[in-house]
Write a structure and sequence with these properties.
Layout: E1 3-5, H1 15-21, E2 30-32, H2 40-46, H3 51-63, H4 69-79, E3 92-96, E4 99-103, H5 113-131, E5 135-140, H6 144-153, E6 159-166, H7 172-179, E7 186-191, H8 195-207, H9 209-215, E8 217-219, H10 225-242, E9 248-253, H11 258-268, E10 273-280, H12 285-292, E11 294-296, H13 317-324, H14 329-342, E12 344-346, H15 349-358, E13 359-363, H16 366-380, H17 386-394, E14 405-409, H18 417-424, E15 445-447, H19 451-461
Helix pairs in contact: 2-10, 3-4, 3-10, 4-5, 5-6, 5-10, 6-7, 10-11, 13-15, 16-17
Length: 466
């Protein structure tokens, strides 16, 4: 299995090279050279098999010769072991006729990002051991990616993790998962600005190829292909279990498009998936793109009740546009050159039609988010996090689509106690495994919105935990 850049200017690489480098040298994102496929037998087994077994089948599919099946099984069994509050890893709850909630928040940091990060940690460890190497992993986060990365990598040898979070734009619980881990190899940087500012700094670090090579830089954001692959597993599991009445439809709270893309990946490898609803908050560039045919960056991301989705540039949108233009890197590169220059591009009509074959999109403001959180509690007794509430408002109705309808619950409501309390009059408590989160010592460094300052900090701290 080989991986190619969406922009066509870099040679193909192996699975482990795509994992360790993350971003292609030409600035594009790695995608599989061809789409592999699960067998009918594997899809049937996914409905009832242990989660780790299905994850190993998919990992083996995308890793090719880089991993033996024995190694794949070992990695997935470690990733989806006793650190999960629910042994089903991603259990499905029925909340109405044909309506289900897919719970993705039972991992160590209480967010769906744990599902990929726990597997990524093992893959990093194996790859670095094979190559006798060390990595400086960098992560821009709007709230949940950073905490999941910290929980996964805080005890990983050969890795230094630098998390860039927007100062004052994450919840207290989200912040503490990044600042109070106790890991000597963890560096939480409090960046002046919003998520897009932090993400721009990360891109600047990788654009400085000499620096990236000097410190062995690698990304853990969803620009890293392996994150997307790992998230595709729960789509395969849920759709295989619920596809009795036909293809299963999903509603996905989305800011960076990575989780929605993972659903498309699962569909491409054979999962019985129908339509995917992309639910955005007031940062609704993707929803507007589907409505108008123009993808545009807003001047700045808006602060909302669903902060992990406060993103004005969805990095993974490039991967789906690449598929939509027939995997033509020349067209893709021209579109993103236009985006870099003007902040927008018009999606070619055939590409927009292709996107609409698979996806719907809907923008939800804070007032609607409050309504949805209260409505779900009144209708089902389920307490949602504000991101999942965005999905509850946007989800498919019975008269819009046939087949099961599944809403992805992307975070535990205890990560946003103030918001939930202000709407429902009750604050959800932290699960037992992290009940002492606010008793732990916080360690973080305030940092200006300056790539040079971040580079200097990374240079001074790589290898200090060894």
């Amino acid at each position: 299995m080989r991986y190619i850049s969406t922009r066509g200017g870099s040679p193909s690489v192996s699975f482990f090279d795509a994992l360790l480098t993350g971003l292609a040298p030409d600035g594009g994102l790695y995608v599989p050279e061809t789409w592999p496929h699960l067998s009918a037998e594997q899809l049937r087994a996914a409905a009832t098999a242990p989660y780790a077994e299905t994850a190993a089948a998919i990992l083996s599919l995308f890793a090719g010769k880089d991993l033996s099946m024995k190694e794949a099984i070992g990695l997935t069994e470690e990733a989806y072991g006793g650190q999960w509050a629910n042994p089903g890893i991603t259990p499905v709850q029925q909340v109405g006729p044909g309506d289900y909630i897919l719970e993705l928040f039972h991992g160590p940091s209480l967010a769906f990002k744990d599902i990929a990060m726990q597997l990524l940690a093992g893959l990093y460890g194996l790859a670095l051991e094979r190559r006798d190497a060390r990595l400086a992993i960098v992560c821009a986060t709007s709230g949940d990616t950073g905490g999941a990365a910290v929980e996964a990598l805080k005890e990983t040898d050969r890795v230094d993790l630098f998390v860039l979070m927007p100062k004052g734009r994450v919840s207290d619980v989200q912040r503490r998962f990044m600042t109070a881990s106790g890991g000597d190899n963890i560096h939480a940087l409090n960046i002046e600005g919003d998520f897009d500012t932090a993400q721009a700094i990360v891109k600047a670090l990788f654009a400085d190829k000499a620096f990236a090579q000097e410190v062995a830089l690698s990304p853990v954001n969803s620009i890293n292909w392996v994150r997307i692959m790992a998230q595709s597993v729960y789509y395969v599991v849920a759709s295989s279990a619920l596809a009795i009445a036909g293809p299963v439809n999903f509603t996905v709270p989305s800011g960076n498009f990575g989780d929605a893309l993972a659903g498309f990946v699962a569909k491409m490898i054979g999962a019985p998936i129908g339509r995917i609803m992309i639910a955005t908050n007031a940062n609704d560039g993707i929803a507007k793109a589907f409505e108008t045919g123009t993808y545009a960056k807003s001047a700045a991301s808006l602060a909302t009740l669903s902060p992990a989705m406060d993103i004005s540039v969805a990095s993974n949108f490039e991967r789906i546009v690449y598929e939509a233009v027939g995997r033509d890197p020349v067209i893709l590169k021209k579109l993103y050159e236009s985006f870099a220059q003007s902040g927008s591009f018009d999606i070619p009509a055939p590409a927009l039609a292709m996107l609409k074959q698979h996806f719907d999109a809907f923008g939800v403001d804070d007032q609607e988010t409050r309504w949805a959180l209260a409505d779900c509690f009144e209708q089902t007794g389920e307490v949602l996090c504000p991101h999942t509430a965005v999905g509850w408002r946007a989800r498919f109705g019975e008269d819009e689509i046939t087949g099961a309808r599944v809403l992805l619950a992307t975070a535990h409501p205890a990560k946003f106690p103030e918001t939930v309390d202000s709407i429902l009059g009750q604050a959800p408590g932290l699960p037992r495994h992290c009940a002492d989160l606010f008793d732990r010592k916080e360690v973080m460094v305030d940092m200006p919105a300056d790539a040079g300052a971040v580079k200097a900090y990374i240079r001074a701290h790589i290898g200090t935990s060894a």
